Model the fold of this input.
Amino acid sequence: MDKNQAKISDVDIEQYELLVPLLRAMYDEIKELSKKKPDGSLNKFKVGKINRILLPLKELMKNEPVLQFLDVLDEETPPFNSDAVLVLREYIQATKMFSDKYTHQVSGSFDFDINTKSEWNRSEDNNLS
Done:
């Protein structure tokens, strides 16, 4: 590992691992909904559920250059399904960029570069769509 490699905390890794699968699942659901009714609007419940995933991800990315492009959904004026897909896809790409920045490959798996001496290992998982 390069000594200048960016590092993150164990807490950030836990947040990432908790939120990314939820983000992907939500993206898949809203993408399917968008295929059926692209101009249909999400209801407040769905917007709230999506934002419960997006807000902590945005917090996780607070020191990343991509933050300026990450928006949450407006609960007062729910977006069209297709607009929500766009926002979710931006977050998926941001999480990939985050992972690329803070991981390195070791024997077919990826290790996060963390601020403590313990290493966290995860299986290779780059399928984001």
Summary: The longest helix spans residues 10-36. The mean pLDDT is 84.
